[in-house]
């Protein structure tokens, strides 16, 4: 049975009487706002499992690449991180990074910082301005520029502050809050207690990269340790991250970790159709073929066009990081790479691509 805003209002406020059309309009507006907020939210506990998502990658998981991934079948997108300090100063460049296209939904915006109040205010600004479906907190980036200022993975050394950040953001915005972290700072057992603290603070989802900050991106992702951490917080959804670059590895990661899904990063670069392949493999056991060269070129052209649309042609300099990934497995790709990393115009990109298709 369908009910309107007025009837719904009386479900929650049965003693209220409606006497004028103006009052009725007020109630309709109230419920319209509530329904709009709920529509733009992810309920991590009830979404279909396994969850397959693009991981946040600095300078890579931007609007154009996210749109390409979405069009190629990626269900969930985690955007590249933005600085909470820059957001609260209304830095134009940072706010542009946080803007998104409605076609990207459901979308998660990641933020980083070390001050709970600043993080909460940044989350509020982003939510009020853009309405992402969820907000993710970076507690895993190993890069020196972040951890030297107590951001990113450095928060694993200060679990009380990490928890305070989660609680502050939960109070500031109505959307779900997640945390992306690592197995530890130096010891890969650091995560075992850390995830309990984060869960108790109210995180709605945790995703974990299977390396310590000290490892950076060297060595192998420790899926077994992710599994131990996951078992310590069975009450909330959990995503595994690290070294998931094929459908078979995604299946293995899920089996080893017991996670509710996978968050894929470098495996998606030059491979935006990977999420679709993973989902198909998990559902059927069959592998979808990679796109042929003609289809690959079409996708890259689309990526380049979106890049120019969003940034102007100067954005092609940023695209240079992406282009080699699309063709790195091709014979003679090194010669192609030397051309792609020098492009300055969309005409140049298309000319190079036309020469190989």
Automatic annotation (TrEMBL):
This is tRNA-dihydrouridine synthase. Its EC number is 1.3.1.-. Its cofactor is FMN. Keywords: Flavoprotein, FMN, NADP, Nucleotide-binding, Oxidoreductase, RNA-binding, tRNA processing, tRNA-binding. GO terms for molecular function: flavin adenine dinucleotide binding; tRNA binding; tRNA dihydrouridine synthase activity. Coiled coil: none annotated. The active site is at residue 141. FMN binds at residues 56-58, 110, 180, 209, 265-266.
């Amino acid at each position: 049975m369908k009910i309107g805003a007025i009837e719904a209002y009386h479900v929650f406020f049965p003693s209220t009487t409606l006497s004028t059309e103006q009052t009725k309009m007020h109630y309709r507006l109230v419920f319209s706002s509530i329904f709009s907020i709920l529509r733009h939210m992810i309920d991590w506990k009830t979404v279909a499992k396994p969850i397959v998502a693009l991981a946040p990658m600095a300078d890579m998981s931007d609007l154009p690449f996210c749109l390409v991934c979405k069009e190629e079948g990626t269900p969930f997108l985690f955007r590249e991180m933005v600085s909470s300090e820059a957001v609260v100063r209304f830095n134009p460049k940072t706010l542009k990074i946080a803007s998104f296209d409605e076609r990207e939904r459901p979308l998660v915006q990641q933020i980083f910082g070390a001050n709970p109040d600043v993080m909460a205010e940044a989350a509020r600004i982003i939510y009020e301005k853009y309405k992402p479906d969820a907000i993710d907190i970076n507690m895993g980036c190993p890069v020196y520029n972040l951890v030297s200022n107590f951001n990113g993975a450095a928060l694993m050394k200060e679990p009380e502050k990490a928890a305070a950040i989660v609680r502050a953001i939960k109070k500031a915005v109505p959307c779900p809050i997640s945390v992306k972290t690592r197995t530890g700072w130096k010891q890969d057992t650091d995560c075992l207690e850390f995830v309990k603290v984060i869960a108790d603070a109210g995180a709605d989802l945790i995703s974990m990269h299977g390396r310590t900050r000290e490892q950076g991106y060297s060595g192998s992702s420790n899926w077994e340790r992710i599994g131990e951490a996951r078992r310590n917080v069975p009450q909330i959804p959990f995503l595994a991250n690290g070294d998931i670059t094929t459908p078979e590895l995604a299946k293995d990661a899920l089996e080893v970790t017991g996670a509710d899904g996978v968050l894929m990063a470098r495996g998606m670069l030059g491979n935006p159709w990977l999420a679709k392949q993973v989902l198909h493999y998990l559902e059927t056991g069959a592998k979808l073929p990679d796109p042929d060269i003609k289809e690959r070129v079409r996708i890259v052209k689309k990526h380049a066009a979106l890049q120019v649309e969003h940034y102007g042609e100067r954005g092609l300099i940023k695209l240079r990081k992406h282009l080699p990934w699309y063709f790195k497995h091709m014979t003679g790709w090194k010669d192609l790479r030397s051309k792609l990393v020098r492009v300055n115009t969309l005409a140049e990109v298309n000319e190079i691509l036309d020469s190989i298709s």
